[in-house]
C-alpha cells in the first residue's frame, strides 16, 4: 500500500495537459483555462477623458473663482461620451463635458457642474476652482500597452471576461476540456426516480461524480449504471476508454466476490499505477493509464470514499490536464479533537468559520464512509497524518475547500 503523498506524486508524474489549444469566444470562456497569456493591446484609459459631468477649462482662467467673485466663461463646445472629433478648447471659453467624454486639447481641469451656474446658460459662472488637473482620467494611467491582463493557466472567471472585453478581446485560446466517462457498478443501484425494492439503494455516486467533474471544467461524455456483470463492465470500460480521455468508475474495486473492476481493467490493458492507498476512507482507490495515455480512476463505491478520492486525485488531474494548477490547500485551527487513524491518513469533512481573522474548523458528525449526510453544512475536507492519538483541539490541520464552497 502506498501513501497519499506517493499517490499524488504518481498522478502528477503521469498527467499531461490536453492539447492542442482551441479558440473559444468570450461568452464561452468562463470556467475554461487560458492556454495563452493575454496582454493589453492598448493603454487604458484609451484617451484622456472627464471623470465628472461639468465643464472643461484652463485652470488659470478660473483660478480665483469664488461664490462672491464668480468667473464667467462662454461655452464654446459640448462633448458627450462617444464624441469622436474634438476641437481644441478656445482660450477664455469652457466646454460642456460629460463623464467619459474626451477632454479637448488645451483644457487641464474639469469643474463639476454643481460648482457652477449649471448646464442651462450659454455663459457659465464658476463659483469654485478645483485643483489643477482635477476630474481628469489620463490616457494610460491605469494600464500601459502590453501589460499582462491574464497569465496562461488562469481559469477564466467573470473578472477575466470583463478584462478581456475592456480590451476588445473577443476570443482566447484555451485547453480542450478533458472528456470524461463515468461508470457506476452495483446490482443494488437504482436511478433516482425509478421504483425501488426494499433491499435496493439509490445511486448517489453517479450524479455526485458527474456534477463535480463538470464543475471542474471537464466534459462528461457518458454516464453508465451497470450491474455486477463481468462482461457488461468490460464492454462499458472498453467503450469508455475508446471515447474519452479519463474514465472515472465507482464501486467494485475492492476484493469482494463481485468486484470485477480490477480484472476488467487488467484485461483491457490498462496499466495499474497504484491500487490501495493508506488512507481512510478510500483505501481501495485505483489509478491506471492505457498506452495511449487514457487515465482511469477506479474509486471505491462507498459514497464518501468515492467523493474523497475524486477530490484528492481525479479533480487535481483534471486541473493539470487543463493546464491549471490544482486548487491550493489551506490551514485551519481545529475547534475540537480530530480522530486521527492509527495507520492511515485520515480525511473528514468539516465546516469552517472565521473567528478573529483566523479560520477555524469543526468536523462533520457523521464520519463513516457510507454517510453522505456528512456533507450537510460541510465546506471543506480536513486531512491528517496517521497518529496513535487524536489531534487535540487547537491543532493546525490542512484543509481543502469543497469545490462548491465559495462558488460563484
Ligand atoms: N473484506 C474487505 N471488505 C472491504 C474492504 C476490504 O479491504 N476488505 N474494503 C472496504 C472499503 S475501504 C470500501 S471503500 C469498500 C469499497 O468497495 P467497492 O469499491 O468494491 O464498492 P462496492 O462494494 O461496490 O460498494 C461499497 C458500498 O457502496 C455502496 N455503493 C456503491 N456504489 C454506489 C453508488 N453509485 N451510489 C450509492 N452507493 C453506492 C454499495 O451499496 C456498498 O454499500 O469495500 C469495503 N469492503
Ligand atoms: O476506507 Mo473505505 O474507503 O471504508 O470507505
TrEMBL record:
It is an enzyme of class 2 (transferase). Residues 181-320 form the MoaB/Mog domain. GO terms for molecular function: metal ion binding; molybdopterin molybdotransferase activity. Its EC number is 2.10.1.1. SMART domains: MoCF_biosynth. It catalyses: adenylyl-molybdopterin + molybdate = Mo-molybdopterin + AMP + H(+). Its cofactor is Mg(2+). Keywords: Magnesium, Metal-binding, Molybdenum, Molybdenum cofactor biosynthesis, Transferase. Gene3D superfamilies: MoaB/Mog-like domain, MoeA, C-terminal, domain IV, Molybdopterin biosynthesis moea protein, domain 2, Molybdopterin biosynthesis moea protein, domain 3. InterPro entries: MoaB/Mog-like_dom_sf, MoaB/Mog_dom, MoCF_biosynth_CS, MoeA-like, MoeA_C_domain_IV, MoeA_C_domain_IV_sf, MoeA_linker/N, MoeA_linker/N_sf. Pathway: Cofactor biosynthesis; molybdopterin biosynthesis. Belongs to the MoeA family. Catalyzes the insertion of molybdate into adenylated molybdopterin with the concomitant release of AMP. This is Molybdopterin molybdenumtransferase. It comes from Chlorobaculum limnaeum.
Amino acid at each position: 500500500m502506498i501513501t497519499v503523498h506517493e499517490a499524488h506524486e504518481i498522478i502528477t508524474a503521469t498527467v499531461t495537459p490536453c492539447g492542442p489549444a482551441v479558440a473559444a469566444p468570450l461568452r464561452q470562456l468562463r470556467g475554461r483555462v487560458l492556454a495563452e497569456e493575454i496582454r493589453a493591446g492598448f493603454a487604458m484609459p484609451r484617451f484622456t477623458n472627464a471623470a465628472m459631468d461639468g465643464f472643461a477649462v484652463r485652470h488659470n482662467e478660473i483660478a480665483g473663482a469664488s461664490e462672491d467673485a464668480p468667473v464667467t466663461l462662454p461655452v464654446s463646445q459640448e462633448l458627450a461620451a462617444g464624441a469622436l472629433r474634438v476641437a481644441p478648447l478656445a482660450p477664455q471659453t469652457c466646454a460642456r463635458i460629460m463623464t467619459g467624454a474626451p477632454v479637448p486639447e488645451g483644457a487641464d481641469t474639469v469643474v463639476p457642474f454643481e460648482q457652477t451656474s449649471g448646464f442651462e446658460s450659454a455663459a457659465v459662472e464658476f463659483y469654485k476652482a478645483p485643483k489643477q488637473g482635477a476630474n481628469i482620467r489620463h490616457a494610460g494611467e491605469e494600464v500601459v500597452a502590453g501589460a499582462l491582463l491574464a497569465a496562461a493557466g488562469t481559469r477564466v472567471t467573470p473578472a477575466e471576461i470583463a478584462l478581456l472585453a475592456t480590451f476588445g478581446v473577443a476570443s482566447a485560446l484555451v485547453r480542450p476540456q478533458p472528456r470524461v466517462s463515468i461508470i457506476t457498478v452495483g446490482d443494488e443501484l437504482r436511478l433516482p426516480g425509478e421504483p425501488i425494492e426494499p433491499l435496493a439503494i439509490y445511486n448517489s455516486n453517479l450524479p455526485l461524480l458527474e456534477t463535480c467533474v463538470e464543475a471542474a471544467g471537464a466534459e462528461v461524455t457518458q454516464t453508465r449504471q451497470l450491474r455486477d456483470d463481468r462482461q457488461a463492465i468490460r464492454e462499458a470500460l472498453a467503450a469508455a476508454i475508446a471515447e474519452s480521455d479519463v474514465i472515472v468508475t465507482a464501486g467494485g474495486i475492492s476484493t469482494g466476490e463481485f468486484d470485477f473492476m480490477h480484472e476488467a481493467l487488467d484485461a483491457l490493458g490498462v496499466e495499474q499505477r497504484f491500487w490501495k492507498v493508506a488512507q481512510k476512507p478510500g483505501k481501495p482507490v485505483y489509478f491506471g493509464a492505457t498506452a495511449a495515455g487514457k487515465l482511469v480512476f477506479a474509486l471505491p463505491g462507498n459514497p464518501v470514499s468515492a467523493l474523497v478520492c475524486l477530490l484528492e486525485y481525479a479533480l487535481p488531474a483534471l486541473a493539470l490536464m487543463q493546464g491549471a494548477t490544482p486548487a491550493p490547500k489551506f490551514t485551519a485551527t481545529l475547534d475540537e479533537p480530530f480522530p486521527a487513524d492509527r495507520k492511515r491518513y485520515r480525511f473528514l469533512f468539516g465546516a469552517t468559520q472565521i473567528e478573529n481573522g483566523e479560520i477555524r474548523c469543526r468536523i462533520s458528525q457523521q464520519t463513516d464512509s457510507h454517510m453522505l449526510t456528512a456533507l450537510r453544512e460541510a465546506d471543506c475536507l480536513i486531512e491528517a497524518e496517521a497518529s496513535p492519538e487524536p489531534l487535540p483541539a487547537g491543532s493546525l490541520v490542512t484543509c481543502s475547500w469543497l469545490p462548491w464552497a465559495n462558488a460563484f
